[in-house]
């Protein structure tokens, strides 16, 4: 677990108020989208179902927009997961299931869900913090994931110990390297059928650098220093949500950061944002355009199909995607999504 001192929690209402205030005093995201003829934004087709299987985590990182920690008790129950499988089976356009958390491995039905998804013709992704894979019973999970050909996407904020531990807590980097060596030993990052991707998050109030350039740096340094291989690096910009918003507000930099993002607005990325092909499901089955909207409790803009139990593909396909100022993070620079840059 991280030993980093975290700021005082802000309520969701307080976060929304701060974001709305930034729109009234500075650049509005909706105005930017209108300027590039991307408002209202409609879904292009549901290809990815992203399921947050619980907010519980073995870590407590400063950049975590989910506000995960070992103290969180929200865990997706099995009946919600079963309904997700029903929806996946009924909607063949869904080609990817993206499992996130918290630490998704901590859901008690995690292994069952992986086995069920392996029976289907789709890609299964888990977003692992790496450190959990070297703890207790979870030490057996890398081999289990390899057996079922699960794609692993893992956070590694930097290829140096100092920068990684500063963001995620003392000892994180060394445990992450240990986990990566185990995964490499199973073929992850070295075989095409065992994809291993890393994620870079900026360590402060700035936009991620060039994804291609940073990937070259990561591969060179991790290979030279640790003989570690991986497939792709994804750069994901920190959105002003939850802990990162609280940090920005505490430093008096929230409006400044949003303006930095706004000044780097990319019209092409704006039309390719992940909410156009992804649907986010929270631990209780509620539906959102993305997992950032999930944390801000901004549900899909439909009348009836607001929970997986009431899923209606036709109604969801015709909805307008819900925005606020945090969305600037997905449209800045090269663009940002759960699969990395957009341009």
The strands making up the biggest β-sheet line up spatially as: 6-5-4-3-2-1-7-8
Q: How would you sum up the major sheet?
A: 8 strands, mixed
Write down the overall mean pLDDT: 93
Number of domains: 1
Order of helices and strands: HHEHEHEHEHHEHEHHHEEHHH
Quote the CATH topology: TIM Barrel
CATH architecture: Alpha-Beta Barrel
Please mark out the parts with pLDDT under 50 across 5 or more consecutive residues, or reply none.
1-7
Q: Helical residue percent?
A: 25-40%
Task: Calculate the terminal CA-CA distance, rounded to whole Å.
Answer: 35 Å
- The helix count comes to 14
Number of strands: 8
Class, according to the CATH hierarchy?
Alpha Beta
Q: Tell me, briefly, the overall form.
A: globular
Helix-strand makeup class? alpha/beta
Summarize the structure.
The chain is α/β, with parallel strands linked by helices. It is built from 14 helices and eight strands.
Task: Give the arrangement of secondary structure elements.
Blueprint: H1 12-25, H2 29-35, E1 48-52, H3 78-90, E2 96-100, H4 110-118, E3 123-128, H5 141-147, E4 151-155, H6 161-168, H7 172-186, E5 196-200, H8 211-226, E6 232-235, H9 242-250, H10 254-263, H11 267-270, E7 278-281, E8 287-288, H12 291-295, H13 313-317, H14 328-331
Parallel strand pairs: 1-2, 1-7, 2-3, 3-4, 4-5, 5-6
Antiparallel strand pairs: 7-8
């Amino acid at each position: 677990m991280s030993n980093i001192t975290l700021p005082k929690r802000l309520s969701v209402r307080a976060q929304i108020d701060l974001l709305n205030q930034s729109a009234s005093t500075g650049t509005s995201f909706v105005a930017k989208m209108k300027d590039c003829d991307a408002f209202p934004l409609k879904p292009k087709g549901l290809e990815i179902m992203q399921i947050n299987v619980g907010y519980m985590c073995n870590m407590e990182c400063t950049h975590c927009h989910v506000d995960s920690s070992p103290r969180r008790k929200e865990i997706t129950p099995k009946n919600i997961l079963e309904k997700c499988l029903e929806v996946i089976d009924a909607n063949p356009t869904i080609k990817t299931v993206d499992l996130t958390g918290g630490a998704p491995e901590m859901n008690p039905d995690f292994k069952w869900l992986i086995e069920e998804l392996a029976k289907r013709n789709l890609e299964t992704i888990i977003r692992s913090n790496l450190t959990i894979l070297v703890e207790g019973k979870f030490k057996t999970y890398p081999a289990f994931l390899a057996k079922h050909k699960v794609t692993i996407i893992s956070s590694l904020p930097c290829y140096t110990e100092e920068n990684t531990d500063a963001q995620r807590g003392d000892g994180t980097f060394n445990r992450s390297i240990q986990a990566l060596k185990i995964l490499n030993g199973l073929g992850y990052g070295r075989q095409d059928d065992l994809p291993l991707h890393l994620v870079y998050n900026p360590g402060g109030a700035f936009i991620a650098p060039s994804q291609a350039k940073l990937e070259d740096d990561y591969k060179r340094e991790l290979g030279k220093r640790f003989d570690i291989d991986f497939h792709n690096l994804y750069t994901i910009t920190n959105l002003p949500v939850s802990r990162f918003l609280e940090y920005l507000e505490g430093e008096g930099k929230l409006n400044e950061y949003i303006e930095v993002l706004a000044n780097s607005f990319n019209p092409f990325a704006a039309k390719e944002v992940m909410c156009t092909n992804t649907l986010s499901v929270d631990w209780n089955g509620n539906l959102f355009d993305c997992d950032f909207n999930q944390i801000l409790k901004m549900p899909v803009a439909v009348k009836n199909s607001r929970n997986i139990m009431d899923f209606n593909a036709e109604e969801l396909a015709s909805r307008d995607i819900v925005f606020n100022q945090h969305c600037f993070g997905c449209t800045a620079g090269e663009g940002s999504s759960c699969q990395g840059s957009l341009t």
